[in-house]
Amino acid sequence: MAEPLEQFRDAMAEAGLxxxxxxxxxxxxxxxxxxxxxTGTRDGFYVLHMDGVAAGSFGHWxxxxxxxxxxxxxxxxxxxxQRAAMTKQIAAAKATREKELAExxxxxxxxxxxxxxxxxxxxxxxxxxxxxxxxxxxxxEDSKGRLVVPVYIDxxxxxxxxxxxxxxxxxxRGGKVTGGNYRIGGEPADLVYIAEGFxxxxxxxxxxxxxxxxxxxxxxxxxxxxxxxxxKKYRKAAIxxxxxxxxxxxxxxxIAWARxxxxxVRGRVAVPILKSDPAxxxxxxxxxxxxxxxxxxxxxxxxxxxxxxxxxxxEVVPTKWEWWHRFPAGEVIMIDSDPxxxxxxxxxxxxxxxxxxLAWPDGxxxxxxxxxxxxxxxxxxxxxxxxTAHDADLxxxxxxxxxxxxxxxxxxxxxxxxxxxxxxxxxxxxxxxMFIDPLTGIISEKVDSHRDSSVRRVMGVISHLxxxxxxxxxxxxxxxxxxxxxxxLYRGGGSIAIIxxxxxxxxxxxxxxxxxxxxxxxxxxxxxxxxxxxxxPSLAFRIRAGEGESFxxxxxxxxxxxxxxxELLLAPAKPRNTDALNRAxxxxxxELAPGQRxxxxxxxxxxxxxxxxxxxxxxxxxxxxxxxxxxxxxxxxLRNSNSSKEI
Length: 647
Hints:
Elements: H1 4-14, E1 29-32, E2 44-49, E3 55-60, E4 64-71, H2 80-118, E5 120-121, H3 127-132, E6 140-141, E7 147-153, E8 156-163, E9 169-171, E10 182-184, E11 191-195, H4 198-207, E12 214-216, H5 223-233, E13 238-242, H6 253-265, E14 268-270, H7 284-291, H8 293-303, E15 321-323, E16 327-328, E17 332-337, H9 343-356, E18 370-375, H10 380-389, E19 397-401, E20 403-406, E21 409-412, H11 419-429, E22 431-437, H12 452-469, E23 472-478, H13 496-501, E24 504-510, E25 523-530, E26 539-544, E27 553-556, H14 565-568, H15 580-592, E28 597-598, H16 599-608, H17 613-623, E29 626-630, E30 633-637
Parallel strand pairs: 11-12, 11-13, 13-14, 17-23, 17-24, 18-19, 18-22, 22-23
Antiparallel strand pairs: 1-2, 2-3, 3-4, 5-6, 6-7, 7-8, 8-9, 10-12, 15-16, 20-21, 24-25, 25-26, 26-27, 28-30, 29-30
């Protein structure tokens, strides 16, 4: 066991209050230079007794003013006399320290007032101001040509911050800064913004044309104290904390401190994001200089919870394309297909092209980029085999299966619950494309895929994921078996809200005019939905496998196809079954052929197919379907289904 002195020193270090000086165990209070203390400052303190059982306490006037009690391993608690003596010493030392600080703060404040009085008005052409593209807003320059920002607490000047032409910032040593601020603009009325640095605050003030004051807090850690002081003085004003977005730093301290301050004063947080690089670290000065004042205003209005934004604040920018006029960048794309048409083989062809920067199938150029494939059906072995068959750069492709390990347990990947996990890997890989195959494979069971309101929520999460990261997310979806539906937009499985959320959609199907054997039949890739550009010509391909090859590959057909999405889905003509009951029976056979389905989903699908409730129930009785409940959820299956069971 370590000696008591070593135990005591280790305890101080573990508390983040390490002491490098000699520790004197004489029962008296000693001060030392603690973590973050300036030269000559000794805010750390300790008391250590060695008579009897070693015991003591330690702390830091700034970081941990409440003393932390300690005793040697195996030792008894302090006796009453020790505790009383120790408390008395700490209280006396604290009073002495507070007196010293007050004298020091008063001395620095007096010096700051003298420097401020002698300083000249800041030159608008000062290199720092020019580089940040902001005005002077009341700043001055000292005799060394440095900008001087005054620090006020309760209206009194307590310290100064100097900024040189390179942007290096320093406070007057020993001055009181906690709670200190500098305000740009007049007295707050209905609204006040709080920002960390001067340039950030100046950019906000200029972007809103001085419509509200902006208070500079100087650091993230000071946001809380400044916000609380403002709330105490301006009880009815709305407070918005304009955070620095430190997303490149673990824990994002800029946003974390801003949220803490906002919660304490019933305020809101505005977060800056660069359009050109949503994952980059930035503040509102960066946004103003890169994306313009309109972008700053839009983000500030959103943070205030106002419905909509001023049209004048919206900067119209051209659509960026991953695949010209087919895949808009940073948006959601939908590909609908029946099973066994080669949709995953198509996915691996497109992923391979992106990984190597090979031209798209229509000849349009493609920049190389990283790709993520989220697969809820195919094994990693199958995917890698197909990617290899397309000569993909495997080092640029990440495969995410439907299950993942966390804390030693297997979890099922679902949306919207694990959107944050997907965002992490998109940002880590700087991925340009993400394929989700199929979409229904990772949608949470809590989402009713046939209810528009339920689907809109999860699709909104996916859309935000795409737009906030700049990654194009391509979702694969199965078609329904309702061949009677003639409009291809309505043939995708689930709610119409799924395709509505996508900015582009495609449908994959066999060429109905190709009479070749199924394995050799041409597939057509038709442009179904095109919100952001024109409809493009349909493309066509066959799936080939060379002699001795284990995995097939896509072979694109020159000239594509003239078929439209609706023509692609036309089935061979056959007599219509006009009997409502027989139609409902056929519907149930098709829907339940793969296995059990949630009863509510099945009923919703029947309703969408135009089958009345009474006819649906008659068809169920005719087929003698089985209903059963698992964990409170009702399912329906065919009687001879292996998955059916009666409970």
